[in-house]
C-alpha cells in the first residue's frame, strides 16, 4: 500500500524539485509554451533558485512544500510554493494595493504527471492552507495558463474561482495568456 504525505522542503530537495518542475512543464505545457524554451530550461539553474527559496525565503510566510510518495521507497513527486502576495500576483495595471492585505500567492503547485490522481495535489493545497491560516492570510490567488485546463479544473474543484484578472507572459516573443483564480481561506475546523 502506497502512502503519501507533505513536508517542508529541505535544502537537499532542490535538485529533485527542479527535476520535477522540468518533467512536469515538458509534459503539461508542451502545447502551451514554445518547445525550444522547454528544451533549453537549465535544471542546475532551477535547482540553485529552489535551494535559495528553501534556505533563504524572503519571510517566514514563504514556504516550499514537497509531496512524498512512500511505498518500498520514498519519492518526491510534487511541490508547492507560496507566500504573501507581492507585485508578481498583480494583474497588469492593477494598483499595488489592488489585492489588499492578508492575501497569499501560490507561485507553484506541480505534481509530476506520472504520480497524478493520487491525492498529492490535494495534500499540497491543504498544507498550504494550514500555513496561510497560521500566518493570518485569509485569501489566496494563483495564476494559471489559460490553456492549462487540468490546473484550472483542479483549483475550481477545490473551491477556487476566476477573479476576472488576466495577463499574457512574453515567452520568447510569444504571448502566453494566463488567468488568475482566487479563494477565501476557510477557517480551521472546530475540534469535535
CATH topology: Aminopeptidase
* CATH architectural group: 3-Layer(aba) Sandwich
The CATH homologous superfamily: Gcn5-related N-acetyltransferase (GNAT)
Total discrete domains? 1
Topology pattern, helix = H, strand = E: EHHHEEEHEHEE
Highest CATH level, the class:
Alpha Beta
**Total number of helices:** 5
Spatial order of the strands forming the largest sheet? 1-2-3-4-5-7-6
Helix content: 25-40%
Distance between the terminal alpha carbons, to the nearest Å? 29 Å
Structural class: alpha+beta
Rounded Rg: 16 Å
Pfam families: Acetyltransf_1
GO molecular function, one term: acyltransferase activity, transferring groups other than amino-acyl groups
Keywords: Acyltransferase, Transferase
Domain N-acetyltransferase: 4-186
Quickly list its features.
single chain; 192 residues; alpha+beta; seven-stranded mixed β-sheet; globular; GCN5 family acetyltransferase; GNAT_dom; transferase; acyltransferase activity, transferring groups other than amino-acyl groups
Write a structural description.
The protein is 30% helix and 33% strand. By secondary structure, it is α+β, with helices and mostly antiparallel strands. The chain has a 7-stranded mixed β-sheet with strand order 1-2-3-4-5-7-6, with helices on both faces. The longest helix has 15 residues, at 14-28. The radius of gyration is 16 Å and the shape is globular. The two termini are 29 Å apart.
Amino acid at each position: 500500500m502506497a502512502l503519501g504525505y507533505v513536508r517542508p522542503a529541505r535544502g537537499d530537495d532542490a535538485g529533485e524539485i527542479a527535476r520535477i518542475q522540468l518533467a512536469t512543464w515538458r509534459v503539461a505545457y508542451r502545447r502551451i509554451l514554445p518547445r525550444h524554451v522547454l528544451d533549453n530550461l537549465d535544471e542546475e539553474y532551477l535547482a540553485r533558485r529552489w535551494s535559495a527559496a528553501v534556505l533563504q525565503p524572503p519571510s517566514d510566510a514563504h514556504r516550499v512544500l514537497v509531496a512524498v510518495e512512500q511505498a518500498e521507497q520514498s519519492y518526491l513527486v510534487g511541490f508547492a510554493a507560496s507566500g504573501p502576495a507581492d507585485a508578481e500576483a498583480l494583474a497588469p495595471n492593477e494598483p499595488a494595493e489592488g489585492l489588499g492585505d492578508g492575501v497569499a500567492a501560490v507561485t507553484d503547485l506541480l505534481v509530476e504527471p506520472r504520480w497524478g490522481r493520487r491525492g498529492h495535489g490535494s495534500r499540497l493545497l491543504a498544507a498550504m492552507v494550514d500555513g496561510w491560516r497560521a500566518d493570518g492570510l485569509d485569501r489566496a490567488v494563483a495564476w494559471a495558463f489559460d490553456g492549462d485546463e487540468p490546473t484550472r479544473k483542479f483549483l475550481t474543484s477545490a473551491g477556487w474561482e476566476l477573479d476576472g484578472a488576466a495577463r499574457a507572459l512574453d515567452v520568447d516573443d510569444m504571448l502566453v495568456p494566463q488567468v488568475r483564480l482566487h479563494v477565501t481561506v476557510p477557517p480551521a475546523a472546530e475540534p469535535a
